[in-house]
Amino acid sequence: MNRTIINRLMLGLLVFFISLSQALATTSFKITDGEVDPNVKARMETNVKALLDAFRTAADNGEKTVKLSKDNVSKTAIEEIKEIWKSSAMSCPPMNLNCRCLKTSNGYQVRGIPVDILAADGDEARQELTINFDTEGTISNVAIAIEMNRYEELMAQKQSDLDYARRQIIVDFIENFRTAYNRKDNAMLNSVFSDKALIITGRVVKEKPNSDLTRLTLNNNRVVYIKQTKQEYLTKLAQVFKTVKFINVKFSDIEIVEHPKFDSIYGVTLKQSWRTDRYHDEGYLFLMIDFRDSDNPLIQVRTWQPYKDAAGNIVTQKDEVFHLGSFRIVR
Fold first, then answer.
1. What are the backbone angles phi and psi of residue 80, rounded to the nearest 5°?
2. Where in the chain is the domain with CATH 3.10.450.50?
3. CA separation (Å) from 73 to 56, 63, 70, 137, 142?
4. Considering only 15-24, 155-164, 219-228, which range has the smallest mean pLDDT?
5. Residue 323 CA to chain centroid, in angstroms?
6. Which of 5, 95, 198, 199 gives 20 to 30 Å between its CA and that of 24?
């Protein structure tokens, strides 16, 4: 056979297999459970597929931003997603996704959408998204999610229908709170802290080997606590946002507790991993959240305590973590 013909056949087969592999290497999305109108369900499936395809295209091409359409995603959500993209691109791996649709107070929600945060370290790159929709099926919010199994455990601990609804709001609140750090959103953080919020941050102080304090402790470290106002905390945080390329915040070991006396007050305890291109730490975060305005819950108390020191010694035991009983509530 003529060599030219053979080369053309080989080239044609190569193009075919490349096209086939690209067609197969896509992510499909279906809602297989949950009560939702079929027409809205179809729009939600179309919109999520468009979102994930846009993520993959932008990531594969090394683009500095992701192109999204208002036909699929709300204007506010587009702006917030682009802010996340400034810190790190995201890409959804090829797979068939089957998700349950959850009803929320403002529309619908799907959870457990896997994505790779490209700027994160290898063992922390794979994370999950929560996607919220309005009543028409348009994507209204995208947040980095807590683990699906922990979400189900937290919901199973409900004491009443009202408690269940508040737990759902708290999880959304936590996920958006976390994602606000990832996208360096000082405005959002400003909106969720009470103007009179109590903010306490712990840090490890290294003592001199021969100091009196050393003889009274098991190691050469102690934790000191610094109290800040909301404005002091946010001003310092804004400076951090300017000096780091990306921030990857992860929450784990989440616990939600309703106050035994004030049913509009909840305590949230979790372990926080904070990683940037310049710095990493891990510690216990406690939030006291006030639901007196149920549409706009506010953080009244935020505390952070280091888990380990630079040498790997545990400096805060679990029973030493702040909780609801650590603070007196005056009304």
1. -70, -40
2. 185-326
3. 16, 19, 5, 9, 10
4. 15-24
5. 22
6. 5
Q: Looking up tokens 């009543």, which residue turns up?
A: 135
- Give the pLDDT band of residue 18 (cuts 50, 70, 90): very low
The half-sphere exposure of 292 on its side-chain side, counting CA atoms within 13 A, is: 8
Q: Which residue has the tokens 């804004």?
A: 238
Ordered alpha helix ranges (H), the chain: 3-24, 38-60, 75-87, 148-156, 161-182, 186-192, 212-216, 230-243
pTM across the whole model:
0.81
Q: For 185-326, give the CATH class.
A: alpha beta
For 22, residues 6+ apart whose C-beta sits below 8 A from its C-beta are none
Give residues with Cβ within 8 angstroms of 266, minimum separation 6: 166, 170, 256, 257, 258, 259, 288, 289, 291
Nearest to 184 by CA among 123, 246, 122, 138: 246
Question: How buried is 140 (Cβ within 10 angstroms: 0-12 exposed, 13-18 middle, 19+ buried)?
Answer: buried
Q: What is the pLDDT of residue 208?
A: 54
Answer for the pair 120, 275: CB distance below 8 angstroms, yes or no. Answer: yes
C-alpha 208/C-alpha 117 separation (Å) is 41
Confidence of residue 215 (pLDDT cuts 50, 70, 90): very low
Domain 26-145 CATH assignment equals 3.10.450: yes
pLDDT score of 216 more than 60? no
